[in-house]
Amino acid sequence: MSLTVGDRAPDFCLASATGDQVCLGDFRGQWLILYFYPRDNTPGCTKEACGYRDVYEARQDQNLAIVGISGDSAQSHQKFIQKYRLPFPLLCDLDGTVARAYDSYGPKKFMGKEYEGIYRNTFLIDPQGNLAGIYLKVKPDAHIDQVMADFQAQAS
Question: What's the pTM value of the predicted model, to 2 decimals?
């Protein structure tokens, strides 16, 4: 399955760092940046999370929510959120089910080792729950500006 812009975003419910269930439907009526990332407290993932943190406050009056998803535990997410003062939820996709639904899970290679894991992908979801932007295997420091520009263009 391959997702394309205009498709209905795959529905999900996952536990947050606090243990609360967070579902895609919770964001109906809002724009949502849903980003998948490999691991808490790694250099690229920290750069990406802090980049979203830095644009989050300025966008609160624009009906925009941000949610990060990785395979990390709630405890790991709690520490990551506290350490970097992240104002948005991080969700636990422990078995990669939601990442697979978003074509964001599969074979990876690091230091010569092959394994299965979450890809660094981002999805812009419109208030009706449709995919408005898809950003695959992004660089952590470069794509946030593009996502925000696309949001501004579509939301206005």
Answer: 0.94
